[in-house]
Amino acid sequence: MTKSNSRPGLSTRAIHAGEGPDPATRAAAPNIAMSTTFVADDLVGFSAHDQDDDAPFIYTRWGNPTVRMLEDKIAALEGTEACLCLGSGMAAASAVFLTALSAGDHTIVSDVSYAGVAELVRDTLPRLGIEVSLVDMTDLRAVEAAVRPKTKLIHTETPANPICRLTDLPAISAIARTAGALHSCDATFASPIGQSSAGLGVDLVMQSSTKYIGGHGDAVGGAISGPRELVEKLRAEAAIHYGGVLSPFNAWLIARGAATLPIRMRAHQEGAITIAEWLEGDPRVSRVIYPGHSSHPQHDLAKRQMENFGGMMAFQVGDAPTGAEIARRMIEELAVIHYAVSLGHHRSLIWWMPTDELNDSSFRLEGRQLEHFRDYAGDGFFRFSVGLEDPEDLIADLDRVLG
Ligand SMILES: *Cc1c(COP(=O)(O)O)cnc(C)c1O
To answer: What is the per-residue pLDDT across 188-237, written as a single tens digit (0 to 9) for each?
Structure first.
């Protein structure tokens, strides 16, 4: 994209950032550079530490033109200097933890997060000599109290998968700054459009680009955006040495999805508001948790921090056996919505989450933290990723299976 004095708007950035007509053929759409290696025109070093931004492409694990295009596009959307794309959201999450932390360090992590992240920090980090405190990020005093001299990283997730609980990002950023720790945030539910995480003080913004950024359910990928120095350190360790790089083909698919991210997020939000209102008004539904609805316990924070409320919601239908029965009916009878995991796609996806099972397998909360989790989760809930179909068709589907 050619530079001009004023920064282009989000939709323009989503379409043009990172790309431009091919200099050789004038092709308007980006090419896919599947090549693993690049012919050198000079003598260059062969170490992760020889790499900088202007270095020519040498080998695709170090950097690739198609992956670079996506990295530049995501950085432009997040409003950060740089971005590193990796092979999955979990590759991005593990890269953040393993690069920022060493044996003897301490990290504070949201006590409710994507199950893979929850299990990684609970099972793997302690094995490596890293101490972990799992804290309810809505309790700012508890976060402050958890800080230790060796705290190097505070990791948040907002809205948190799967219960759509929010974290006050500027407040946590301030605590991290005082502690001399980095603040990383998994903003997958929000996408770069839902909130300006870096603008709210987050040092490293993590995304599973499998979700909203790719948006079509056909490519797994992950991204970490932040200041160039931090991102280049991540690239040297996590991409070049741990090796979990993104395939150029997936980068191309995800970039194609990313071009329509702003307009898709507007449509996701519009559909989700319609559905949340319908669910709120239905007597079979006992609770709806959608950040964009006034019934969300943190709706004020959502309005302050989010620019788009997205398409993710959780809703409860009464006691757990009823929920499980409805889930079984969904598997048999849904016509439009897919009963499937994942989220952020153009297709609507729904999944039943029994609270006790989820807590036993992933979170293992007790006492006040469990109570607060239950406040959002009830005895079980449906995680609903509202897609881009006509809301009336989604409502007809839900109406039928709620019985
Ligand atoms: C899906 C997801 C991940 C993991 O991403 P993958 O691309 O599946 O590895 C991490 N965090 C959140 C919030 C997610 O929803």
So the answer is: 999 999 999 999 999 999 999 999 999 999 999 999 999 999 999 999 99
- Which residues of the chain are modeled with pLDDT < 70? 1-5, 46, 48-53, 320
Q: Give residue 5 CA to ligand 1 midpoint distance, Å.
A: 36
**Cis preceding-peptide flag for 354 (omega within 30 of 0):** no
Stated pTM of the model: 0.96
Which of 109, 167, 204, 208 best tests ligand 1's pocket when mutated (most atoms within 8 Å of CB)? 208
Residue with tokens 């459009």: 193
β-pair type (151-157, 182-186): parallel
* Domain of 360, in residue numbers: 261-401
Residues 184 and 215 in one domain: yes
Q: Residue 28, by phi and psi: left (phi above 0), alpha (psi -120 to 50) or beta? A: alpha
Q: What per-residue confidence (pLDDT) applies to 41?
A: 87
Structural domains counted in the chain: 2
Residue 2 lies in a domain: no
Å from CA of 214 to ligand 1 middle: 12
- Residue whose CA lies nearest to ligand 1 atom number 12: 114
